[in-house]
Amino acid sequence: MNQNLKKLFETETKKVDEWLGKLLPPESAEPVSIHKSMRYSMFAGGKRLRPVLCLLAHEICGGEGDKAYPAACALEMMHTFSLIHDDLPCMDDDDFRRGKPTNHKVFGEAIAVLAGDALCIHAYGILGSYVGLPIVKEISSALGTAGMIGGQVADIESEGTADVDAKTLEFIHIHKTEKLITTSLRTGAIIAGADEAKLAAITKYGQGIGLAFQIVDDVLDLTSDTATLGKDVGSDLENNKATYPRLYGIDKSRAEAKRLVNEAKDALALFGEKGAMLRELADFIVERVN
């Protein structure tokens, strides 16, 4: 990550965390256990990629002020809810997330399930304040059976199968990962009042980096280690999951991620120099080590 992008993430992560601290129920509120569990996962680290994408899209589409921050925080709550559930024994059964024990390892499975549920519900309460904007429908589509949950179902049903074709693999990756990344960008753009041309450009950019992000994740699961990645590695191979390296190999997977990122950057031509930070972020996605 170059210095400009690093500084941006440091600044925006700090501000997002401040907003999250205010928007989430305090640990002292009853029932204490669930609020501790929610905040544990929300403040366990992470890149805050989805909030930053939302905020960058808001800015380059002409948005001003702090209007997008509550939505950016809601998106991070949605993402964290999905991670808590994804780590459960009935799903991926992972012990570590972001270098720390997973939620169910600390609070037990029942509280972890409820903490994920609570984050999702709390996020919708925040999104309800954006009267007259279609962002609740936008995010619901990215999370539901036409989005993340649909992709997760296809992922589960593909585990252990001898042959997973390219169409199924792309379906899983688009729905599990790309849709929420694209929606994070679109949400910021919608709040800024972006016109159709800008929204289309932002969407194409999101689709490229979103799919590339998951391909890189697949590669890192095979090539990295737990200390660097901050979560269990090798679980995709152990569970015989549908991944790009399994179908295409590591080198071709990396080449495809690079191609998608280049297409994403090309989609930002409409924004000129205003899109510089999003272009740098796209490069970071294929170069990252965690």
**Tally of extended strands?**
2
The CATH class, by name, is Mainly Alpha
User: What value does the average pLDDT take?
Assistant: 92
Alpha-carbon Rg, integer = 18 Å
Largest sheet: 2 strands, antiparallel
- Give the full name of the CATH homologous superfamily: Farnesyl Diphosphate Synthase
Structural class: mainly alpha
Which percent band covers the strand fraction? Answer: under 5%
CATH architecture heading: Orthogonal Bundle
Question: How many domains comprise the coordinates?
Answer: 1
Number of helices: 15
| Global shape | globular
Low-confidence stretches: none
Order of helices and strands: HHHHEEHHHHHHHHHHH
Write up what this structure looks like.
The chain is an all-alpha fold. It has one domain (3-287): Farnesyl Diphosphate Synthase (Orthogonal Bundle), CATH 1.10.600. It contains 15 helices and two strands. The chain has helices at residues 3-23, 32-42, 49-60, 69-86, 103-107, 109-127, 135-143, 148-158, 166-192, 196-223, 226-229, 235-238, 244-248, 250-266, 276-287; strands at 96-97, 100-101. The chain has a two-stranded antiparallel sheet with strand order 1-2. The chain is globular. The mean pLDDT is 92.
